[in-house]
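Re: How this chain folds, sequence and tokenised backbone to follow
Notation: Tokens come from a learned vocabulary of local backbone shapes, not from coordinates.
Start of record: The labelled sequence and token lines come straight after this line.
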Amino acid sequence: MDEVEWRVGDATVPYEAAVAAMEARVAAIRAGTAPELVWLLEHPPLYTAGTSARAGDLVDPNLLPVYRSGRGGQYTYHGPGQRVGYVMLDLGRRGGDLRGYVRGLEEWLIRTLALFGLEGERRPGRVGIWIDEGGGRESKIAAIGVRVRHWVSFHGIALNVDPDLDHYRGIVPCGISEHGVTSLARQGVDAAMPEVDAALRRAFVEVFGAGPTR
């Protein structure tokens, strides 16, 4: 059970069902009865509120369903055309470095974007991955929000492939109002979801390996 399992959803998954499945898998990984898992999926249009979400950042509470989430961070959007990656790793077996794990998620996204000719960038004090639009403008292309229980991670990343970016108008994404959001499609990249999945898997193995090292 040392090799990471990959699961790819072929239909949108309700948010509450995904959270229940993650929690069950985290318990199984902790018990040693299931391998680590990366689950790639899409959700129907919705907002999630992380543990740091501020009420004022929910601009239009009637636009889409809102779910409270145990992950870190603030409000974010999920919907069709966005590839969500839920990552359930045994961080205890991987060195127990939470900060290093988050940096690894950032690197995973940066390397994935590079495979499509895009330069994703970190920003001090801001979670997620950003695209420099030029002229002092920058836009967020991927969000990160994690939770850890008994040193097993869950929740993860959300990469905008070709979602309805107008849906972001109902929230202040991740509490940041002075910058925009973008996607692979908005950046001129015409990529089908299977291509994105293949790039995510390739970049993940480069960053995290095929399984725990301890």
In short: The longest strand covers residues 137-149. The domain at 5-208 is CATH 3.30.930.10 (BirA Bifunctional Protein; domain 2). The first helix runs from residue 15 to 31.
